């Protein structure tokens, strides 16, 4: 399609990091773009924990977007600290502390980074409360976005930046996320330096990990005195139903985790005993590696919508790089189709290689052959006490 007569209408579906940085770069070059986000407002839900932005991916993307200095003003270089503790004794067995001035992978809260990107866009770029339900190809070659409220909008390019359960992806691929066999159960602490100083010391300024027997505990320092952590276990996806417990029953989940981690050091078990709120179930899903599709004019994907992989510190970085690469192609190639082809020719092999490495990394971190064969039901656990 020749778009020389008018500027192409670009719709980014999803107001996450990759979609927002794509919009930012397009606007930096005077291009029009609209971001459709299903959430009702920027503060509609918590945005998750801290991210480490790598010097060769995420930071490259922010530099291209003209936002690296703003990022550095918010980032926490001290968050690069890594602590590994023994699961039985909680003794420190591995420790990496960043050198003075090192900013290879500084940390930033996901919400802070998203806010930085949102603030960098023209007013009205993001249309909140606009949930996309699907994409149709029209006879004239344009794309029609279908919204959950029954309305539609026609555009020249749809960018699926809408995450793991993308509503845009079916327009180019039949692939669906599959469960990895690993679930993270999230917990958190506020005012950790005052109310939980011992746990804060155990975590340090960055991330603490302990693992054995097909399960682990990770805890991470966030901004404003918050610690976010995860019990990481190899379990069936429906483990809580099989155990006969409700995820909303915080005391029951706590007791179950304490039983699952029986024999671990008391300071580590305190992460379950003393968390401020409830527990959040986060089963890990992935797309096939590689996830490839035949080129479809007028539609493409970026970030988790294109290459969902285990959360081993690269997903956000890749999403940012995807967004910048796509936007750069759109402002340098002769037309939209050439731009999408150029972008996909770089993104697909890059993400395939990293996705395979992340799958191997997850298996190395929580070996499947170390996981218990069965998960006892909560009723059985209660009966044993």
Give structural attributes:
385 residues; alpha/beta; FAD/NAD(P)-binding domain; D-Amino Acid Oxidase, Chain A, domain 2; 7-stranded mixed sheet; 5-stranded parallel sheet; 33% helix; disordered C terminus; nucleotide-binding; monooxygenase activity; flavoprotein
Strand-helix topology:
Layout: E1 10-13, H1 17-28, E2 34-37, E3 50-52, H2 58-64, H3 68-74, E4 82-85, E5 92-96, E6 107-109, H4 110-119, E7 126-128, E8 132-137, E9 143-147, E10 152-155, E11 157-160, E12 178-189, H5 192-195, H6 197-203, E13 207-212, E14 215-221, E15 227-234, H7 239-242, H8 250-260, H9 266-273, E16 280-286, E17 299-301, H10 304-307, H11 315-332, H12 336-365, H13 378-383
Protein name: Flavin-dependent monooxygenase
GO molecular function: FAD binding; monooxygenase activity
Organism: Streptoalloteichus hindustanus
